[in-house]
Each structure stands twice: as C-alpha cells, then as structure tokens.
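Box 3.1 A note on notation
Throughout this textbook, protein chains are presented in two layers. The first layer is the amino acid sequence; the second is a token string describing backbone geometry. Keep the layers aligned when reading.
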Amino acid sequence: QVQLVESGGGMVQAGGSLRLSCVASGSISSFNTMAWHRQAPGNQRELVASIASSGRTNYDDSVKGRFTISRDNAKNTVSLQMNSLKPEDTAVYYCKLNQFSGFWYDYWGQGTQVTVSS
C-alpha cells in the first residue's frame, strides 16, 4: 500500500507563486512516475505535469514555462513550483504515483486547494 500526502496549497493573487509538495510512503517501487493533476469545479481531472524516476518530465501546454516539477527519489517526494499563477489555475491539485506492482496502479493523494484571485 502507498500513501501520498500533499501540502503547500493556498490562496495567492494573479502573478504570484506557490510551491506544492507531496510525500509518498509505503511500498514504493524504484521505478515509478509521479505527477500532479488538478480538477476545477465542473471540469474533469487533468494532468498538469509528470516526472519519471529517470527524471524525464512532461507538462501540459497551459503550464509550460510557468510550472516546474521536481522529485527527490531518496525522500520519495515530488514538488511543483508554480510561478506566474493565473485565475484559471484555480483548482484542487492532486499528487499521483503510478508504479508496477504486478500490474500498473495509480495511487492518489487527498488533494490540496489552490486559489488564484484576479
């Protein structure tokens, strides 16, 4: 079993910055992908950014150049540095870990609210 705990959400004005962090614990494989997703009211959950254990990253076009995902494999943590925030970034942000444990499985955190005011 894997547990994910996010922190760092809050309220910020447009143009500001926030940093989200997620700590994973439990039975964690050396080879996995960690990611941040978000879900705004009335919208489907969408991928924001992901990072493999190799360090390879992937970003949604809407956040490229503004957000940076990073991870510390030794500490099983993933972070999301969010700069130049926009009101449309307002959402609940979820940490996800995807790994193979006999089959590919997604583990999710409980989510943290990010609110960007105009």
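DSSP finds no helices and eleven strands in the chain. The first strand starts at residue 2 and ends at 7.
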